[in-house]
Amino acid sequence: MHNINIKELARALNLSTSTVSRAFRDNSDISKGTKQRILAKAKELNYQPNHYASNLREQRSKTIAVIVPELANNFFSQAIHGIERIAREKGYHILIYATEDEYEKEVSFIHHLHNGRADGIIMSVSGEANDHTYLNELAQKRLPLVFFDRVYEDIVTPRVITNDYDSSFSAAEHLIKQGCSKIAYLVINKNLSIGKTRMQGYIDALEKYKVPFDDRLIVDCSNSYKKNNTILKKMLKELKPDGVFTSVERLAFATYYACYDLEIRIPDDLKVIGFSSLEIAPLLNPSLTTITQPATEIGVEAAMLLFKMLESPESVDVNKKVVLDSKLIKRKSTEKKA
To answer: What pTM did the predictor assign?
Structure first.
């Protein structure tokens, strides 16, 4: 539904904008009856008062919002650091919102930001639902939006991503070249575009090297460490893979825990590789082979794109896509037996 502005609300009530504005500021010089009439009409017409813009006399809030699926992930922490660095240089603050991969929270945050709390949004999506049309309201209100890492393909807005397909292909290829012929792919949300892209890289690598594909080895996991421990132990005992490729950081940890409990030796019995920006990956026992995304650089690029949209919107192509390269860093978790 279109959100009307204060001028349109005033026109509908046949009142001045200053009278309508005073009603929302709860001024004592406006009658109770008039105030009630204004508030009722505002509700009817879906008007949301822009308190921040009012307080700043239509100036910008000098704040940008950053929406991420989780904070307990080194990738997002580094990306936020990159965003914050650019924002600080521009004299802006950042507000951080964590959706915990819940679609309802994502929608709530977006609607909350419609009131002028932020001048723009940098967002990595939750992906729990197919209806993303609520984001089109941002365009109507001219609130710039930049996606990073996780994106919605059906929303046209600039985005900063990594070469997920190539990286996943390289990860699976590395396991194959290290002698693996039964590789499990662990994923939390394979319906999200990033999940599909990474999975396709894995599947195509198997096909290239004529490794049999077994859909049971594509393992749906969750955001719960406890549930993942149960899921992975069952998979490791029943399917007995010789390689594991984790599409997100937390699943590499879950694999290590499950292997420890089951006395599966990494890398002798099972080789493990995963997407991770974790700085302590070399310190794990054994050190973890990773696909490492340039997380801070992603944050920097996303912030620079957003500020370009704020400063010179006509110069930014809404279809703009910045693709950065991840790196395969080989460590002991995928070493061949001596």
So the answer is: 0.78
